[in-house]
Design brief:
mainly alpha; 139 residues; single chain; 73% helix
């Protein structure tokens, strides 16, 4: 698990590049504003993973809990970008009143995006809380 810091940084750079490439496609999405959001999600989540990799060795948790924090961070960041890309492509408004204004997708698309965003929210909060717990002061 000690090399996971480098893996997190690799995934961070990969997601950052996906965000950059998403920026090139913004104008081709059904919802251009959501396309911009997808671009930014890739950049921000990639940066988050790079930062997480930089502090990973300072996170003191049991191996099982640390693995949970690792995998939920990866799931949350990648899925955040992917669900936002799908929302942009579908033109959905699910859970996005500002970027989704004036747009709506098929009911199954709205449901899929809603479930996706909810799962992302739960996993990224879980991961962040575990990392915060692992960074608490040791006496």
């Amino acid at each position: 698990m000690e090399r996971n810091n480098r893996r997190l940084m690799w995934h961070g750079m990969f997601l950052f590049i996906l965000g950059l490439l998403t920026g090139f496609a913004e104008q081709h999405f059904a919802n251009v504003r959501m396309g911009l959001a997808a671009h930014l999600e890739g950049l921000m989540n990639g940066t988050f993973l790079i930062a997480l990799g930089a502090i990973w060795n300072e996170v003191k948790l049991s191996p099982r809990i640390k693995a949970t924090a690792y995998w939920t961070a990866l799931y949350g960041t990648y899925m955040n970008w992917l669900i936002t890309v799908l929302a942009a492509a579908f033109g959905t408004a699910a859970l996005s009143p500002i970027t989704g204004a004036g747009h709506s997708g098929q009911p199954w698309q709205e449901s899929m995006v809603t479930v996706g965003f909810l799962s992302v929210g739960i996993t990224i909060i879980t991961s962040s809380a575990l990392v915060l717990w692992g960074l608490r002061a040791k006496e």
